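Help: why these numbers?

___
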Amino acid sequence: MPDPTPHEAPASGRERLQRALTRPSRGQAVVAVLLGLLAFAAITQVRDTQVDDADFAGYREQDLIDVLTGLAGTSQRAEAEISRLEDTRDELRSDSDRRQAALGQARTEAETLRILAGQVPVTGPGLRITVKEKTGPVSAETLLDMVQELRTGSAEAIQVDGQVRLVAQSAFSEGVGGIVIDGQQLEPPYVFDVIGDPHSLEGALTFPLGPRYQVEEIDGGTLTFKDPGRLEITAVRDVVDPEYAQAAPGQ
């Protein structure tokens, strides 16, 4: 009868440790890989921190102060350049505004001169004055005096009978059955459309011994006026180039 198989003696602690180290299990291998990855990540983080600080790590305190001073100077120069550019921008903008203002003023003055020269139609408040003959003819001199008083009383534009635009050079003379203004024969009644302040124009007509008195008491005619609210003057004068007068140098 064969001998029974003998039982193996239990392994000692040292033997079990040796077997674990020489023949690792699958779980031990996974743990080892995870530990390796953690170690690699930690080393990489430390190296990145060292690289970031490497540029200044060896600087002395005075060196760091010099670096900060240089950065401050660069910042100040940049701010000064920005300020200079902003001043230049503001100056250019101011020059442009001045040019625009000068152009606007020049246009306004040119338009005023064209109105006074009778070269453009105009509209505005004023009076419509009608002069009729009654017991005798109204003289050209009386009508010219009336026009001068109206100009003194703020008249800016005057038109006679819808045909003649009066200007500073307008000439009045006696004609057959009426008067002649700037070469045009006109017959009564004479209708003057005058643009200006109505109240001032009325005062220029009615003051003692003024135009109304001359027309009615001296020439034997009638002078009436009304404020239509707004007048339109359409008669214009041709542009006439001066023959002798020239603008002064620098004007």
Remarks:
- The first helix runs from residue 13 to 22.
- The CA atoms of residues 29 and 35 lie 10 Å apart.
